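Researcher: Here's the sequence for the chain we discussed earlier.
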Amino acid sequence: MKNHILKSLLVILTVLVPLSMCATVYNGVCGEHLTWSYDTETAHMTIEGYGELKDVVDSLWWNKQVLQASSWATNYETYYPYNSCKTISLPEGLTGFSGAIFRDWWNLTACDIPEGVTKIPANLFEKCYKLKEIKLPNSVDTVGQCAFANCTTMVKCDLGKGVKYIGQMTFMNCYALNSVRWSDCLEEIDGSIFDGEPNRAIYDENDVATIPLRDTLFFPATFRSNKQISWCLHSNPVIVWNAKNPPASSSVFYNLYDYWNGDFIFGPDVEFVPAKLCQQVRMKKIVLPEGCKYIGAGAFASNNQLDTVLLPSTLTAIHMEAFKGCSKIKHIVIPEHVTAINSSCFLNCSALQRVEMPDGISTIGDNAFSGCPNLDSIVLPKELTMIGGSAFTGIKLQDSLVIPDKVISIGTNAFAGWLSLKELSIGKNVVLIGDDAFRGDSAITHISVWAATPPMVSEGTLADIPDSAWLSVLPDSRKLYREHPYWGRFRMNDTPDSAMVQRTVIVDAAETTADFTWPTDSLANTYQIDIYKDGNVFCHLTLGNRGQLLGISFAPKRNRQEAGELPYTLSFKVTGLDEASRYTYILSVLDEQGTPIHVYAGDFATTGFEGDLKQPDGNEVLPTPPIIPGDPDTSVFTRLSLPDGNKPVANYQLSIRNGKLLLITPTGTFTVSGQRIE
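Model: Thanks. This is the structure I predict for it:
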């Protein structure tokens, strides 16, 4: 027994004396063609040879597991040379590492990895607490998970120009890291490479993990990863996203928001923004490049610092929830090629004041602008056909609203809660208005409905609009609205607003003839035409409800009360006009009390008239539908040119002879005829 104890002590002394009394060089084998040597005085290790560096060797020093299991190993820095090593020289012939060889080398400050190495294994430099900087060669294409985890004093890491893959938690708890550079061919980051947890040995227990990253992180066109990168607090890099074909859905930057205040830039190669890419990111400005075509669902949702959004002209689609909860956006311009505002796209953008939408938008989805109480101006696109449920709930500042003519359906609660809405105009093609569409809109005083048939509504659709509101409809549709159980409760104007007059009157001319054409009205009793020349009455005609000249026996007879009769077109022709004079007309549609239902007005002149008959470019003024005024004295007239005819005449008068209406002038008598066009 004594001999065995003495022999053991001799072995221990053989190891300890060189370590404690003088510098010693240790050496051994660390690969099939690799050897190592370690100088205790310089704390430097030199590895020579070629091939793969291995962790299983013939040396007691290299085999950490054996040393850690030794009963006398009580102090890492005294008995573990590998823990005391500060620098390493690796040979140019090195091809790789068999595992986490340098993990727990607490005093390692530098390690230069040569060209030829293609992979950094998982955990290779984990817990190298004094490693401050590392640069990988361009030959490395893969960095394994936790490769630099817990390198708590590392300030800079250059991953070279060839890295395509970075494993998760690569820089976990790298509290001092402020510069990371990776390649322009990077394809995938496998998750939370910047994760961190409080390190109680370094930080007060009330502190949280921080990474003071200040670098520019460039995500190149080759990048295709869709996994979330978790960022530690106070990480403020400039992020450049230039991925050209990433997955359609991506959470790469999800939750990059706590204390991040860096800039987020979209590069020129970006063709679309993946769904969920930047949810809850504290970005302040978005500028998408020309060439970008669509924004994915939820791409920028819940960015509560975002206040500026500039979209490219090439954009064609903005998907659902794209800007949901972006509570600081005040103004946004939708590019002209976008055809839909999808569901919840701008939901709860509470600061949004103005939205400019192109005419080509056909759909506004459910909740698209719900929760945007500060919108002070909404102009709905001309091509709009569908308005979704709760699309504009809660608008407070706008006092008038025009639903375009192409809209077919309006969803439930679509315009509920518009506290200041007073005037509402509903287009002619609206068929369905959902329940509670105007719930709470108790300030409405006037509704204009252009649809010939009352749109389908429920009891709750119009329930909160006061009974005292005025309803204006097309004259031929009054009876239908009056008899409707919900529309019929509003007050209806006896004389329709000028805005409701059908603008279909046509004034045409052939030689010295003017042709007046207009639609009938079911409530009309007579039609009255007044033609003026130089301010004086030239012709006054009264037609019956079927278009017949009153007192003319050959006029066609028709009972306008006939069941099922539909509106038809009337035409009246006046001949014998002066070739060089200007004329004014007023065509009035009168009910049985002589009250105007429609008023059509305009003026025309013969080609011999020497006034302003041509446009500035010299072209003849062509017939256009007149703008129907409420007051003929304020008319905007229609001008048209008539061919040459007789010379000026005066002192016109009308006469009925033998059942014919004659226009008598100093130069002759002309026939004035009326007819109905079936």
